Amino acid sequence: MPEDALRYVGDCGMSDPGSGYVDEAAMLARFSDRVALASPYTRPTQFYSAGKTSARLPAGPATIKVYRGSEHRVSVNTVEIPDGATVRHEVLLTRWVDMPGAGWYSADDHLHIARPTPELNPVVSKVMQAEDIHVANLLQMGKVKDFTIAEQYAHGPDGHYQEGNYILAAAQENPRTHFLGHTITLGAARSHHDPDKYLIYRLQWQATVKEGALNGFAHAAWPHGSLLDPRDGMAVVAPHDLMHFVEVLQFDRSGYEQWYELLTLGFRLAPTAGTDYPCGGQSISGHERFYTKVDGQLTYAKWLDGVRQGRTFVTTGPVVEFGIEGEDIGSEITLEAASTVEVVGAVTFNPERDHVAFLELIHNGEVTDRFSRVAGSSRIDFKVSRFVDESSWFAVRGYGVRLDENPFADPIMFSALEPTAHLHTAPIYVALKHRPGIEKGERAKGIARTFFSRLEDLERLLADDNAEFLAPGLENPNFDAVPRETFLNNRPDLLEEIRVAKEFFSALSESAQFAKRVQRRTAVGGQTTAVIQSTSQTGSVTSLSPYGA
């Protein structure tokens, strides 16, 4: 390992909290052989460089392979090293695409890199620049009684660090439980952690939204029914309209279906992507990333606004264009009446690394068109006309295979899978003037019934006769470790949250005429009243009963 290699890693509680620099002996002792061998920091032939590196190599031919993110071509050169001689070799990295030049900036929404002091900013930034990640969200990770993993020295603007168009920002993955899912908050003014009301996600999200933050669920790509499946948590929290994004791409897997369900219920949520570095066994940041359109100079505030507006697409490398009637990703088009719209899209990829086989046009969660790659091409284009007779959302997605995987990238958890290429845009929304929204259609009613059933299952799981049985399992330190006392104390409030959510989805499933929006107001005495409006055809309004905060 060269002495001038950048040697910063993440923190997933596998080392001392706040520990940033690699102790190779400690790593080898703590990690399995499989994990240790997958780490670029324990392979002497693989390392990060700030731009200039010297190393001792044996005489003979040496192959030097240099990567910088996904927008640059890979440089591969073989250098002959004479015995006892010093060889100087210069590498020129070239782009195959320039996304910042078009106002699109890459981000990883899920990095667990400790920054206990500001002095670590320059080296962490250099690693992010090496992976060409323009916005690195460093998540301080919490459990009920532990909020020190990947510690950040400050949150809000005080926790921002920017070099040119590269930003480090403190964020958090909290609250997080294995039966409600893991949440991500971006842009909060401070770290939020309430161990006494830990299972009531709504309370924390309400506080962060007041600070201009964005909230979302992580791990949507996790298999349905697994311990990290966020669907139950989404069902509980969604009615309060506090969610802004869903992390749909991770671990070389996509998880679009539950996001589609929420879109079809009328929630406008941006797709995001992140690696969960290094907690998911991912040894490279930005392997899964997303791009956000920003007008003018990049700042974290502008970037947050871009995500809030849904101006994003997720990818493992390929880049995508998508428009309807001249409007870009995240836009809304209003039609005076049912009519035909022109839909255009394209994906471009680096053929040295990716092979995107096809693009698909998604309309309200269903594939309507598939466009195949022409042999030898590194681009797929399409232009179609589609008749729109109901309020809709459209998006574009694509799939393929990875031809040249960065050797740093080794998602251990899914290493048996063939490396794949993924991409998906945020929607473009098409509304019909004087016509019901998408959330009032038959498709939405069916999804609402599914959410209602999901809540009923969760309610049964938390029932009186099962609570004591469930509590010990939640205390398992190998998971997210919800203490028995916390679980039992939170259970009544959580059951009330479920009841309110059931009322919301019941209204959606039974009536074609309803208002989705949940209004919140604080009453005297500190109680919070949830008002979910269910509007009948006659215009009458039914308000649900208040419940304690």
Give the number of DSSP strands: 29
What is the distance, rounded to the nearest whole angstrom, between the alpha carbons of the first and last residues? Answer: 55 Å
Dominant shape: globular
| Name of the CATH architecture of the largest domain | Alpha-Beta Barrel
Q: Characterize the largest beta sheet: strand count, sense, and whether it forms a barrel.
A: 13 strands, mixed
Query: How many alpha or pi helices?
Result: 10
Give start-end ranges of low-pLDDT stretches: 15-42, 411-416, 512-549
**Helix/sheet category:** alpha+beta
CATH class of the largest domain: Alpha Beta
- Rounded average pLDDT: 84
CATH H level, superfamily name of the largest domain: Metal-dependent hydrolases
Percent of residues in β-strands? 25-35%
Percent range for helical residues?
Answer: 10-25%
User: Whole-number radius of gyration?
Assistant: 24 Å
What do we call the CATH topology of the largest domain? Answer: TIM Barrel
Count of folded domains = 2
Structure in words:
The chain is of the alpha+beta class and 549 residues long. It has 2 domains: 100-438, Metal-dependent hydrolases (TIM Barrel, Alpha-Beta Barrel), CATH 3.20.20.140; 441-542, no CATH class. It has helices spanning 24-30, 33-38, 121-130, 201-210, 231-237, 257-264, 300-308, 442-461, 464-474, 484-510, and strands spanning 60-66, 75-81, 104-111, 135-143, 146-149, 161-163, 166-173, 176-177, 181-186, 214-217, 245-250, 253-254, 270-273, 289-293, 312-315, 319-324, 327-328, 332-335, 339-348, 354-363, 366-372, 379-388, 392-402, 420-425, 428-432, 518-522, 528-532, 534-535, 541-542. The strands form 6 sheets. Strands 3, 4, 5, 6, 7, 14, 15, 18, 20, 21, 23, 24 and 25 form a 13-stranded mixed β-sheet that branches.
